[in-house]
Design goal:
about 775 residues; mainly alpha; two-stranded antiparallel sheet; 2 strands; flat; Lysozyme-like_dom_sf; signal; Transglycosylase SLT domain-containing protein; TPR-like_helical_dom_sf; TPR_rpt
Length: about 775
């Protein structure tokens, strides 16, 4: 995840491309709102009742006489439906309004937008025709959206003329589609040729795939089969896993054109990298039968596909066969066969194989990995007395090894849980001093306190834990330190230092008219885009309080993206180290917004999810960006993998459309259900459930076994993936702040040290 921040904010979980805004009530034209009003507790439905019921006034060109105002529609749920992208519901509610309301320019606009989202392009063209004269605030958007609809439903020439002026690959794609539908195939292909040259330079494969798919279709219609087939081959290989790639492969089959064997192998490898390893296996099986490419290449690709598909028994067999064959990857295959065993639940046998490999090949890089993995899995299995000396052996053999830092840290954990807490204390203290990030240093310090306690130095442990709890309040390290202090019978410091006494001096903030109008009809995401160009102007009006002004302005939206980015860039750490008062609560709300609050809290209640956990996950997963798409194709606010979402949809009785997964309504519903399911699996333990949300329940099941030293701070410290370990700490730190914002000290749930390591993860867990 990309992190953009002015200061080090890792402790508070600010990772992941920060953006933001939280839902709050929206004033009508002529009103003003303090930046301290309508805080995170306000909801999307509050926005609707205050403003969507009566769309904002429209600015008219000079010299134009305003028509008599029609009665405002009565408060309704349609704006909430638009805001959450429940398009069918929005259409029904808008169409049920009185005719006089439906004919208002704002209402025609939102109805046209709903029609476009539902695929009724002809209705959008009808509603938007001439609308720019009645709704000049949104003239650019109306013209563009009408052209977008016209590219589907006509008039096609108009759409081609509009999009043909743009250099954007997506706009040129639209222009070509319009020309294609207008029968102007040569002109359409000419545009695609130019667009593909630009797309190739940008190296954005998704753009290139759309353009090549269109050109292949047009070239085939023109009878230019060499061009069509070349594009289809590119799609089948380079875009494998994308919809266009799979359509390209199907088109080659239809045309009775086959990929060369080396291209079939390349297609299989692309599918593996795209997270669709299961689809690669049949291709590789066929290549093995035909023996048209080197056997070793096919076998390695199939073994990798089985491993990525989590078919661990078959992956182990495939790598074991490879390990018996001569070739440069023989030792790698030995390592991976043990790796598949460990992941498949046979860690003890895997450890034996790794140790054998390490003893046979000494300084080989795969021997280094094997020795380190053997030590790590001994740690995870609770065999601490065996793990600690194995880490010592690794560090001696590979003083500059790739895993040296991890080995030192994990060795200290093994010593802490064995009979060497004093040695662990010294190592953890040294690592804490060397840590580059404050949050990492404090997690190490908390463990250093535990080592001191187990070594019999209670006073030193209490001193360290108290310091950690005071230094970074409401972080995972601070929560763990407080739980340790309570267990030791020591006095607890304040959960967080009290707020500075400073009188509030509210800012009078308002939105520019276009953004104001868009918010009033539920299109907060578009409103956010309209606000960005006004940031400098808006901030300039409030010298010395620019960040507060921007956060307050974005806080009027029910879309939580840009506000968070502003907070990450502008809010300093000192503002988070003490409780907020009336004068500075805006800073916390900026960094911990609660978008779609009513919907989220309804879903949390329905699925027995602790209040604030969904927003805590959202903050870490997508930084409140509903358009977020990860490299492994996780989607939306809660970064759902399509296969996970499909299974969750089946369990809640919801139809699944991959194209709708970015919708807040769909993403929140399925993500909330899924975290609730994980909580049920892991006996409502948030540590295990949050770890499972990131790494998967089966992986978490591998890290638990009865008899291990598994109190919460130690269990998290031993998570073998840095990403998951930091993820758990940040999400639980987020949760503590969301809880504090809702109810103060009393609302913050203490970290329960006991972790239920005897949980049985069901075979069908996903």
């Amino acid at each position: 995840m990309v992190q953009r921040r002015r200061i080090v904010m890792g402790l508070f979980g600010l990772g992941a491309l920060g953006l933001g805004a939280c839902a709050r009530s929206m004033p009508m034209p002529g009103e003003t709102t303090s930046s301290a009003e309508g805080g995170s507790a306000a909801s999307a439905s509050a926005v609707t009742s205050a403003s969507a019921a009566a769309p904002a006034a429209t600015a008219l060109p000079a010299g134009t006489t305003a028509p008599a105002a029609a009665p405002a529609p009565s408060p309704a749920r349609w704006a909430d439906a638009v805001r959450l992208e429940r398009w069918d519901e929005a259409e029904a509610q808008l169409d049920a309004l009185p005719e006089v309301d439906r004919q208002r320019p704002e209402m025609r606009y939102v109805r046209g937008r709903v029609a476009l989202e539902r695929g009724d392009a002809a209705r959008t063209v009808e509603l938007f025709t001439g609308l720019e004269k009645e709704l000049p605030l949104l003239v650019d958007d109306i013209v563009r959206r009408r052209a977008e609809a016209a590219s589907v439903a006509g008039p096609f020439a108009e759409a081609a003329a509009f999009f043909g002026k743009s250099r954007s690959p997506s706009d040129q794609h639209r222009a070509a589609l319009a020309l294609e539908k207008d029968g102007q195939l040569a002109q359409a292909r000419s545009i695609l040729d130019r667009a593909l040259a630009a797309a190739g330079r940008s190296r954005k494969k998704s753009d290139e795939a759309k353009l090549r798919a269109a050109r292949a279709r047009i070239a085939e219609a023109q009878g230019l089969m060499p061009i069509a087939i070349a594009d289809l081959r590119w799609l089948a290989v380079e875009a494998a896993g994308l919809p266009e790639g799979e359509a390209g492969a199907a088109a080659l089959d239809r045309l009775k054109q086959s990929l060369a064997p080396k291209d079939q192998l390349a297609r299989a490898l692309t599918l593996v990298r795209a997270g669709q390893a299961e689809s690669a296996v049949p291709i590789l099986d066929e290549l093995e039968k035909k023996k048209t490419v080197p056997l070793l290449d096919v076998l390695h690709a199939r073994a990798e596909a089985k491993l990525k598909a989590r078919d661990y028994p078959e992956a182990e067999k495939a790598f074991r066969v490879l390990s018996t064959l001569p070739g440069p990857r023989k030792v790698e295959a030995m390592y991976q066969s043990a790796n598949a065993l460990a992941r498949g639940g046979q860690a003890d046998e895997a450890i034996k194989r790794w140790l054998d490999l390490a003893s046979r090949f000494k300084k080989n890089s795969w021997a280094e990995r094997s020795l380190y993995q053997a030590a790590r899995w001994l740690l995870l299995r609770g065999r601490y007395d065996e793990a600690a000396p194995l880490y010592t052996r690794y560090l001696a053999l590979f003083p500059k090894g790739a895993y040296r830092e991890d080995a030192e840290y994990e060795q200290a954990l093994a010593q802490l849980s064995a009979s060497q807490p004093k040695v662990a204390q010294k190592t953890l203290g040294r690592l804490a001093k060397a840590a580059k990030k404050p949050d990492e240093a404090q997690k190490l310090r908390e463990l250093e306190g535990l080592a001191a306690f187990r070594a019999g130095d209670r006073d030193e442990a209490v001193r360290i834990w108290t310091e950690v709890a005071r230094t970074f309040p409401l972080s995972f390290a601070a929560l763990a330190a407080r739980s340790r202090l309570a267990a030791a019978g020591a006095p607890l410091p304040p959960l967080i230092e009290p707020a500075a006494v400073r009188p509030a001096n509210p800012l009078d903030l308002d939105l520019p008219d276009p953004a104001r109008l868009l918010v009033s009809i539920g299109l907060d995401a578009e409103a956010e885009g309209r606000l960005v160009p006004f940031e400098r102007e808006a901030a300039a009006r409030f010298a010395g309080r620019e960040a507060e002004a921007l956060c307050g302005m974005y806080g009027k939206l029910a879309h939580a993206r840009r506000r968070y980015r502003v907070g990450v860039a502008q809010v300093g750490m000192p503002q988070l180290l003490r409780a907020p008062g009336e004068a500075d609560r805006w800073a916390w709300e900026c960094l911990y917004p609660r978008p779609y609050l009513d919907e989220v809290q309804k879903l949390e209640g329905e699925h027995e999810v602790p209040r604030g956990l969904v927003h805590s996950l959202m903050r870490q997963e997508s930084a409140f960006d509903q358009e977020a798409l990860s490299p492994v194709l996780a989607v939306g606010l809660l970064q759902l993998m399509p296969k996970t979402a499909e299974k969750a949809a089946a369990e809640v009785g919801m139809s699944f459309e991959p194209s709708r997964l970015k919708s807040p309504h769909v993403n929140l519903r399925l993500g909330s259900y899924y975290i609730g399911k994980l909580l049920k699996t892991f006996r409502k333990n948030p540590v295990l459930a949050v770890a499972s949300y990131n790494a998967g329940p089966k992986a978490v099941g591998q890290w638990m076994r009865p008899g291990v030293d598994a109190e919460a701070d130690l269990w998290v410290a031993r998570i073998p993936y840095d990403e998951t370990r930091n993820y758990v700490a940040r999400v639980l730190g987020n949760l503590a702040r969301y809880q504090w914002m809702e109810g103060g000290d009393a609302a913050v749930a203490p970290l329960v040290l006991e972790v239920p390591v005897d949980v049985e993860v069901p075979p069908d867990a996903y």
